[in-house]
Amino acid sequence: EKGTYEHYMLKEINDQPAAMRKIIQEYQDENGELSIDTEIMDQINDADRVYIIAAGTSYHAGLIGKEYFEKWAGIPTEVHVASEFVYNTPLLSKRPLFVFISQSGETADSRAVLVEVKRLGHKTLTVTNVPGSTLSREADQTLILHAGPEIAVASTKAYTAQIAVLAILAQVAARALGRETGINLTEELAKVTTAITTVIDDAETIEGIVHEYLETTRNAFFIGRAMDHYVGLEGALKLKEISYIQAEGFAGGELKHGTIALIEEGTPVFALATQEKVNLNIRGNAQEVQARGANVCTIAMEGLESENDAYVIPNVHSMLTPLVSVVVYQFISYYAALHRGNDVDKPRNLAKSVTVE
Ligand code: F6R
């Protein structure tokens, strides 16, 4: 039920702090330690490489998940778009584990990969919001997202739930492998939950950003580096699907290799700056487009902000910033669609789950 909210999407954005708390609770054992079923941990321990398979927003969550598997657990990880993987399968490692990320658990493109890799005898794990869904029933193991039903076509709380569950999985794997990650994930996810609440409380400020940058534009760009690049891809997808503004997400350093030709006087460019290591680089990229007339809207993290930033998210662990920064993009997309009079929850040409290949 959407209750007092005008749209399911708005409700689902607002559900995110509660979803985070629920996930932490569901994945804690009686001693308060994060824990994952032993069968799933055995699968991970046996694997020499993880192949994440997904589509759309779930693919974007997979890109963040790869960072966790590689940086925390030290497990080589590839992320693949499901529809490509089936017909253009890459060379596989000796002991692959296939991880399917799917909110609905019904995406036909992902299922086609599942059927094929099962035929080849490989291990499979589905990460889904829907217990009993096709991908859950057909995979060897399942991890549930615990985000609660997602009704709006544009995925919001499932994306943040996917990232949180992948972080927990990678963290537990790191512990099992005796690797020191230097992060207390339970504590850091609790901080993330508070930070998401802060962003939600700032919804009106973010609506102001839409007035200033997106009211009449036909296109927009999203730039970032490292994990901020992946969040930009998600920001662009969200904006496209409900506001119908043409949007592209780019690695900040890649713009100058062609795309910068599209920057005109007033072109909106959203720049995300949450990663200290590349803060100067993304600032430089923002200046490059600003010098060519772009209307740059920088969203930074507390501690890395500079004078003209449009919005500053609270400081959280550098590996977890996507969980907070994406909420800003969710609101930007929501208000852009709302201001254009679009059907926010049911955008044209789209269905909630894509059950055809
Ligand atoms: C975008 C969106 C889609 C889905 C994609 C995969 O907001 O919702 O891109 O993420 O169709 O769907 P699932 O996760 O159900 O496999």
From TrEMBL:
Domain named SIS: residues: 40-179, 209-347
Gene Ontology molecular function: any one: carbohydrate derivative binding
Keywords attached to this entry: Aminotransferase, Cytoplasm, Glutamine amidotransferase, Repeat, Transferase
GO biological process, one term: carbohydrate metabolic process
Cellular compartments annotated: Cytoplasm
Highest taxon in the source lineage: Bacteria
Active site: K352
This enzyme's EC code(s): 2.6.1.16
Catalytic reactions of this protein: D-fructose 6-phosphate + L-glutamine = D-glucosamine 6-phosphate + L-glutamate
Signal sequence, renumbered to the chain: none
Gene Ontology cellular-component terms listed: cytosol
Task of the protein: Catalyzes the first step in hexosamine metabolism, converting fructose-6P into glucosamine-6P using glutamine as a nitrogen source.
Assembly behavior: Homodimer.
The protein's name: Glutamine--fructose-6-phosphate aminotransferase [isomerizing]
Protein source organism: Salinicoccus kekensis
Source species taxonomy: Bacteria, Bacillati, Bacillota, Bacilli, Bacillales
Location of this fragment in the whole protein: 244 to 600 of 600
